[in-house]
Amino acid sequence: MSEAFRYKTLSGLEIIERQPLRKRNGLRLLFVHGISVGAWVWDAHFLPYFADEGFPSLALSLRGHGDSSGRDRLHSFTVDDYTRDLREAAARVGSPVVLIGHSLGGAVAQNWIRMGGRASGVALVAAVPPWGLAPSAWRMSMQSPRLFREVLLMSTMGVRYADAAVLRGGLFSDDVTPEQYALLMQGIGDESRRIGPELQGWRIFAPMPWQMPRLLVLGGADDKMVPSDEMWRTALYYGTSALILPDLAHAVMLEPRWETAARPLLNWLLTLPD
Fold first, then answer.
1. Pick from 13, 171, 234, 237: CA 20 to 30 A from residue 126's CA?
2. Residues 169-218 pLDDT 10s
3. How far apart are CA 106 and CA 16, in angstroms?
4. Taking the CA atoms of the chain, what radius of gyration do you get in angstroms?
5. What gap in Å lies between CA 40 and CA 4, rounded to an integer?
6. H-helix or E-strand containing 40?
7. What is residue 218's three-state secondary structure?
8. Which residue from 227, 245, 250 is spatially nearest to 170, judged by alpha carbons?
């Protein structure tokens, strides 16, 4: 397995990097995490997997997350702030770069493209749809009111105020054991209170469809945060199709069946010009 290097940029952003022993082509992968976590979620499985497949693989922790600076100012940050972090990280990685954004990270990736960012490809993994999460949240409030309440508490008060057992059903499939879940919860922190309203669709963060480079829309069939039909609509908005994977929930990169998501992502990467 490739070795992980952890370092910080001049502005205090944490980067986790794994380099392949032999590069497959010129593409570099930059992974962007979702709410309340950090770059570590990608290093559990995805970074070593893709490095071993020949791709330089890097993940950043957005400001206030992971080991990045700014935790004391977390609740002042917006999607545009996180987009500036992505711009800095992408400049460090260099071209040609492929972005892989999960959940909130998908919104940040879309916003970066909207603001003129250039990438060889973008993979939206269980990502916030271009119009925001309001339709998904409304459905969750009707179909899973307890989960809706705990997600609302997590996003407004902090994860320590939410019921961990209820969140487990929204984030993970039944394959995740209680022991695995307890360990994963230790890495989950708070999120900026300004992000929740923005992700509901109160502001524009999506590019026009023709601005988007080669795109993959991918997610889990058991996702209660971003339902599969919302992923299909995201794909339709950008003029492509979605890949919905069985037996996976929202946090696909941390599931015991994580390779179910990694393999089609790899197959898509192999179709991109370097």
1. 13
2. 778 888 888 878 887 888 888 899 999 899 998 889 999 999 999 999 99
3. 19
4. 17
5. 11
6. helix 40-43
7. strand
8. 250
**What pTM was computed for the model?**
0.95
In this structure, how many other beta carbons lie within 10 angstroms of the beta carbon of residue 197? 15
Contact status, residue 68 vs residue 21, Cβ threshold 8 Å: no
The type of residue at 185 is M
Instruction: Give the strand pairing for 28-32 and 57-61.
Output: parallel
- Output phi, psi for 198, to 5 deg: -65, -40
Phi, psi angles (nearest 5°) of residue 241: -120, 160
Q: What are the distances in angstroms from CA 108 to CA 32, 115, 133, 266?
A: 8, 10, 14, 22
Q: For the chain, what are the domain ranges?
A: 4-269
Assess if CATH 3.40.50.720 describes domain 4-269. no
CA distances from 212 to 95, 130, 175, 266 (A): 16, 12, 34, 20
Count of C-beta atoms within a 10 Å radius of residue 216: 23
Q: Which long-range contacts (CB under 8 A, 24 or more apart) does 131-139 make?
A: 131/201, 131/206, 132/198, 132/199, 132/200, 132/201, 132/202, 133/199, 133/200, 133/201, 133/225, 133/226, 134/200, 134/201, 135/230, 136/225, 136/226, 136/227, 136/230, 137/200, 139/227
Encoded amino acid at 102, one letter:
H
Name the residue type at position 60. L
DSSP code, position 94: -
The pLDDT of residue 141 is: 82
Residue with tokens 């889990």: 220
